[in-house]
Amino acid sequence: MITVVVVDDQELVRTGFALILGSDPGIEVVAQASDGAQALAAARLHRPDVVLMDIRMPVMDGIEATRRITSEPTLSGVRVLVVTTFDGDEYVVEALRAGASGFLLKDTPPNELIRGVGVVAAGDALLAPAVTLRLIDRFVRVEPVQPPRATPLAELTAREQDVLMAVADGFSNLEIADRLVVSYSTVKTHVSHLLTKLDARDRAQLVMIAHRAGISS
Fold first, then answer.
1. CATH 1.10.300.10 fits 147-212, yes or no
2. Please, how many CA atoms are within 13 Å of residue 109, restricted to the half-sphere of its CB?
3. In sequence order, which residues have a C-beta less than 8 Å from that of residue 169 and are 6 or more positions away?
4. Which numeric CATH code is attached to 2-126?
5. How far apart are CA 207 and CA 170, in angstroms?
6. By the 8 A CB rule, do 100 and 66 touch?
7. Residues 69, 111 contacting (CB under 8 angstroms)
8. What is the pTM of this model?
């Protein structure tokens, strides 16, 4: 059972997301929150698999709440999935930097919302090319390129570079396994090695590193 905390300052939106997610037998909405401070408290209380996080909220915005959740050791298993309007939100890149594992648009169809929560709960990042790659491009233009602190990209194996390119292009582990004709467990191992070698917290940071280095198809 995937446990979720739904966070949004608009009750109608929050309730709608909760009803959609609750309709899936594999998902349980354990709490709702109307601002970042409540989200942090709910994350500490329930230790959910996923926090569905709005950005613009009173008291504490979604960026700060995401930063606190992803940096708190006791919440290391909690993943944050940001929900945004994208075109009207200039703070999404900051949420990615704060440790968000992916993004959804507020007009996402119900089945895609359910699928997205499942993807993030499984340890993948929800990196739809139509949204996330544009965010990464914006991030790369704003931030100076810095090499990863741990191991240079040049020291990655050829297969690790293939996997990194596929991650950067928004493929899930299952899709990468199919694309490279290898097992799912092999892909998970390669992704784990990439996270360690490139000193990345999660797949979202792997995407940033790859795009900074020009690694994408």
1. no
2. 3
3. 129, 216, 217
4. 3.40.50.2300
5. 8
6. yes
7. no
8. 0.71
